[in-house]
Amino acid sequence: xxxxxxxxxxxxxxxxxxxxxxxxxxxxxxxGLTAGFGGSFEDTFTIPGAPSQVAMDNxxxxxxxxxxxxxxxxxxxxxxxxxxxxxxxxxxxQGVTDLGKLSFVRTAxxxxxxxxxxxxxxxxxxxxxxxxxxxxxxVSFSDKDKAALQQAGHRxxxxxxxxxxxxxxxxxxGATFPSIGITEALGVxxxxxxxxxxxxxxxxxxxxxxxxxxxxxxxxxITMLLANFTDINSTTPLLAVMLGLAVGIDxxxxxxxxxxxxxxxxxxxxxxxxxxxxxxxxxxxxxxxTVIIALxxxxxxxxxxxxxxxxFAAVGVALAVAIALTMLPAFMxxxxxxxxxxxxxxxxxxxxAKESAADQEAAGDGATGSGRQTGxxxxxxxxxxTKDPRKGIFGWWVRVVTKVPVVTVLIVVVVxxxxxxxxxxxxxxxPSAAEDALGTPSRQTYDTLTEKxxxxxxGPIIVTADIVNSTDPMGVINGLKxxxxxxxxxxxxxxxxxxxxxxxxxxxxxxxxxxxDQATADLVNRLRDQQSRWKSxxxxxxxxxxxxxxxxxxxxxxxxAMLPFALFVVGLCIILLTVVFRSIAGPIKATVGYLLxxxxxxGAAQLVFNRGVGLSIINIDKPVPIISFxxxxxxxxxxxxxxxxxxxxxxxxRESYTHGMAAKEAVVDGFxxxxxxxxxxxxxxxxxxxxxxxxxxxxxxxxxxxxxIGIVVDAFLVRMxxxxxxxxxxxxxxxxxxxWLDERLPVLDIEGEAVTRERxxxxxxxxxxxxxxxxxxxxxxxxxxxxxxxxxxxEVQAVxxxxxxxxxxxxxxxxxxxxxxxxxxxxxxxxxxxxxRVRRLVTFVDxxxxxxxxxxxxxxxxxxxxxxxxxxxxxxxxxxxxxxxEHLCTRARTAGRTGVLLGAQRAGRLDWLNPDGVGELAAVxxxxxxxxxxx
Length: 935
Hints:
Layout: H1 2-14, H2 16-37, H3 51-62, E1 70-76, H4 89-100, E2 107-109, E3 126-132, H5 143-159, E4 165-169, H6 182-199, H7 202-226, H8 235-264, H9 269-296, H10 304-335, H11 350-361, H12 393-403, H13 405-419, E5 428-429, H14 441-453, E6 461-466, H15 473-485, E7 490-498, E8 504-511, H16 518-529, H17 531-538, E9 542-545, H18 547-581, H19 585-610, E10 626-627, H20 630-658, H21 663-690, H22 698-730, H23 739-744, H24 753-760, E11 773-780, E12 784-791, E13 796-800, H25 803-813, E14 821-826, E15 829-831, H26 835-841, E16 842-846, H27 853-858, E17 867-871, H28 879-895, E18 899-904, E19 917-920
Parallel strand pairs: 5-10, 13-18, 13-19, 16-17, 17-18
Antiparallel strand pairs: 1-3, 1-4, 2-3, 6-8, 6-9, 7-8, 11-12, 11-14, 14-15
Helix pairs in contact: 1-9, 1-10, 2-7, 2-10, 4-5, 6-7, 6-8, 6-21, 7-8, 7-10, 8-9, 8-10, 8-21, 9-10, 9-11, 9-20, 12-21, 12-22, 13-19, 13-22, 18-19, 18-20, 19-20, 19-22, 20-21, 20-22, 21-22
């Protein structure tokens, strides 16, 4: 991966203006489409297949008006007056008539309607007019119509005695539209300040912010456009913006910081940009991938709106990664040497110049090495003419936390474990008007209804009855109404009516408790428990639905999904980090740290939002339930972000360890070299999240608070305190992995080892790499070992021996089989790192397959071919194929650009081709017998 990123960034660096123009063009195009065709958001929470959702779908089909959008007009008169007095009731009735005349109102129901009860408060000081707005939605109900409805309420108020008040709110006023204000923008300003302090340049500081904003702009446009085709929650775009800003700035910072460090060492800008993306960029790809997997993993919950939220947030993260890997090196190309820190610019070493020349020569795409050094030993980086970082604040801190590592580990675990205790008392619910800002119509109406009618009035439950086969439908409805009214937790049953076709009955139930209260959920379950009895007593099927019941089902489903999702995240964490760090203890340590961070973040949210600790600081007037999907979203996002810091910090420690440092010294060295950038990244991410807390949607504020606390804890107490202490305590055991597992795990080169290896071997075996192939000490377990191979352009060489050994060697030299050990450059490219490019430059023909053999041999010398390998050349027997092979060898010798390597079992069968040299592989304990010059 690092080789591919090296070449990609070098390409973007050289074509800086084109790359930047492409990204800006995409943003402009999508922005224009969004302006003309942007969709709208839908905040309806549903679970397909849930009992409440099935009942609601049936109700919409048989009782359409029951699913219409509604508004509440609440009339409150002063204490001592009565809404039923002769002076007031006629004016309310006239108001009902006037409301019914509004063009967008389907019906306005009087508090004294025939089939309605319970719309008058017990003290007779309040009455509710229910307004049916037809088959529309909260989003499509226009601001103009909302204003007209409020004006109608104001006119009613003007006809009433002094002191009377009319509020208009309810379901129609519950839509929340995503918006970004000045408070959120301040988070970006703080991030810019942190970047300036870290990088020491306003231009360098501006790059991560600019690239992050472009990524956020593109992801927002994509979300708005796709809102035309799928239901997207209004929290989704803001979550994508918040997360895209945070990771976009951080990912660019990690790469840019490495680039500037290398410029300070004297590396030329293009080579530095390529190496920065190949090393830090590889870690960015891994970190971004973990975030994306965790976000897409929200689909485990089986709730469509949560899946959509995760997917669109993942799109924002993917764009942040793509822009950091392409647009950022393009900006580096535009800035060139001006990106270098000022002081070190004066000094350029010849060693750095040689390294940069080697970097420019290494090009192409490819896979990565195993993490163990092969070939030439690594060379040291040029030293900066600066003070030893071990003497700074980060050197002091890592020495403190690793001096007595057991004590450090115990302190962190006890402190963070204690802060996570409140998680057990999380009170979860889906949003309601109770959480809207004070003074909004929806909140005013909610508070008035709660005061006059009780909490339950704002969360009615609907019971449906299938009465199509009943001989006494009204008797069934009245019987159900009576039994429901007698159940514990039911305050009243104000509505019990059939539809026009008298095939479905609808009974509205007002609980004694609010929609987010556990007692209301208990009532829903109690109603469902009666269904079988009602079936036998009344002979009808019943269902329990309504917004409250659906929200309860959604919350229950989210609660059930928490454990599977947690197991998914923890399991993924262990697997990915085992692959990356080739260690058993490291992933376990990282997982424990993640759980501590997640618990602390969720515990802080519980203290603030559920218990009301510090409400005034975050601009909330009372404790509220936490939105049901917050814990699972926070767990997913925090997992990815925690892995960011784990990778960027520990990969540097592992790099030092694999290059020969003692385990404890490697921890210190890795910490002091990555501590500054990890600190800056954590402060940036915290500032972005923190400034989403004071204003905006409650759901996003809750997520932002948990993430802000979780990030600070994870970066400073877990990754920069707990992790170095654990690694020091374990010593060499921290990097131990069973050999059998190491051989079976895939290799992810996130430390840029392949690029480092190419730089170290840039002059091997020759400076210009004209040889067709050269290899030393080549081995594939079970096939061959210790082989030296060399073929020059214009030569025809042969290797003979057992078929398995010969075929294995030829496949390895052509980049089609991975070598277990040895150093090899084929067609001018290192193996195995450049295997994909080698496969394009090396022709491999298996003569054991006779079909079309002659034609394949005729195509064996393409213009780009540097090596032609013919396996089983001794099996070429038909005249046409023999002529084609002979012609191939003749052309290769004549042109002098391509080498030919033949494989056979016996040398005598190749005499007709007159090879320049023949080497032999032994059958057992294969030690090469390749004569010098006839390799």
